[in-house]
Fold:
Amino acid sequence: MRGKSESRRQAIVEIAREVFQTLGFEATSMSEIAARVGGSKATLYNYFSSKEELFVEVMRQSAESLVRNLFDALDASLPPEESLMQFGLGFVEGTSQPVLTRNYRNAIAEAHKSTVGRLFYERGPQEGLRVLARHLEACMARGALRREDGLIAAQQLFGLLRAEIQDKLLLGVIDSIPADEKPRMARRAVEVFLRAYRPDAG
Structure:
């Protein structure tokens, strides 16, 4: 029964993705999604408490397909230079994809009108920050990085990795990043981070 329920839930997410992409968040109603799913609004509300929650799940799954393996592959037994460079390159690759840029734009556009922004942050960036923070804390515990607050360190690394591209992508200044530039961006960010967090940094 659980498998059937999960399958039904995923079918709702897939159909909702198509509707949101076609109509946009504001113009989409739960009635429209229910009609395309082939059920009632009550059926949708059995799986998602609101349109906002369903919208965030659509965005979360889109993002997870691009970056989940990146976080799963973090290995604190490797030298930070190696593990963070691998992570940094994957982060730049994943977060520069058009679908993630679109997710961020949607979340920002709705943030002051609904719970979309908060839910998106809690189920996306915040979860990623916590995973990265645990990785950095493990590196700190074995003396490979200077001991500091792991969550703050993770936020700073995120910021460095986004510094050269996020505003330009979100504001439509650029649509993509040349493939040969991504490793250089990641390396610059990781090198700055390691200068600040190497064990002998004052």
Summary: The chain has a mean pLDDT of 92. The chain has two domains: 1-48, 51-197. The first helix runs from residue 2 to 23.
